[in-house]
Amino acid sequence: MTRLRRKPRQQRSIASWHAVLDAAAQLFGELGYARTTTNKVAERAGVSIGTLYQYFPNKDALLLALAERHMAEAGAELERAFALLSQQQPDLEQTLEVLIDAVVALHRHDPAMHRLLVDLAPRTPEAVARLRRLEQAAAEAVEAQLRRLGVGGRSPRSRAMLIVQGIEAQVHGAVLDPPEGVSTEELVAEIKLLWLGALRAETAAGSAGRRAAPPPTSQ
Q1: 3-6 long-range CB contacts below 8 Å, 24 or more apart?
Q2: Do residue 164 and residue 90 come from a single domain?
Q3: Which CATH number characterizes residue 99's domain?
Q4: Domain containing 32 — which CATH number?
Q5: Which domain does 37 fall in, by range?
Q6: Do 110 and 133 lie in a common domain?
Q7: Residue partners of 169: CB distance under 8 A and separation at least 6
Q8: What is the mean pLDDT of residues 176-202?
Q9: Among candidate residues 56, 71, 88, the one where a domain is terminated
């Protein structure tokens, strides 16, 4: 099983750690996974191969560390988005704009690396657990927004998880693999319309149902 050997604690070692990861990200993007070697990564990072092997036993370990760093960056980006929503408390349309734009920004930061991490990064139990925690935290924050806006339906928690999973999958396809003849911008706009329409439709249906319900009879 692929594991990181250890993570650095001293400032100088932390700088070397990130230099190696930055170099690996660059070379994976330029050469692809198969043609990238740990020797090339060490050379690009300006460290000895021995220093690299202190932390990363192989290329899979480099991918795993890049995936973990990406999830940490994603979590920070989403926290900023939810903090903005909590501060401004916008309407449903603007809330969806903020959420979806944050996910788009994460995918657009380095599309080639994002694709590589999704396709090839090792699925260790630790990595899977961390991804699930990130997803759950995002769903809890979305649930709070649904409740604030009154569009949570019968099960706001379940709805929030479906929104998180759905938007992630849809944005992934829109940014990394848009169909021929359709731009990413067009697809993202469509994603926003779909979710806005779905959430508004049920709210409208619920309001109509309440208006149509007969008044209670007196006993």
Answers
A1: 3/57, 3/61, 3/64, 3/124, 4/55, 4/56, 4/61, 4/64, 4/65, 5/53, 5/54, 5/55, 5/56, 5/57, 5/61, 6/54, 6/55
A2: yes
A3: 1.10.357.10
A4: 1.10.10.60
A5: 11-56
A6: yes
A7: none
A8: 93
A9: 56
Above pLDDT 70, what percent of the chain? 87
How many structural domains compose the chain? 2
Q: Where are the alpha helices (DSSP H) in 109-155?
A: 111-120, 125-149
What pLDDT sits at residue 214? 59
Shared-domain flag, residues 27 and 68: no
On whether both 31 and 122 belong to a single domain, the answer is: no
Helix, strand or coil, per DSSP, at residue 122? coil
Q: Mean of the pLDDT values across residues 25-37?
A: 89
| Rounded distance between C-alpha atoms, residue 18 and residue 198, angstroms | 42
Q: What is the pLDDT of residues 53-80, one digit of tens each?
A: 988 999 889 988 888 888 888 889 999 9
Domain membership of residue 67 (yes or no) is yes
Which tens digit of pLDDT belongs to each residue from 85-97? 999 999 999 999 9
Question: pLDDT band for position 45 (50/70/90)?
Answer: very high
pTM of the entire structure?
A: 0.79
Residue 216 lies in a domain: no
State how far the Cα of 93 lies from the Cα of 197, in Å rounded to an integer.
10
Backbone angles phi, psi at 182, to 5 degrees: -125, 130
Tokens of 93: 């349309």
208 has a pLDDT exceeding 80: no
Are residue 114 and residue 182 in the same domain, yes or no? yes
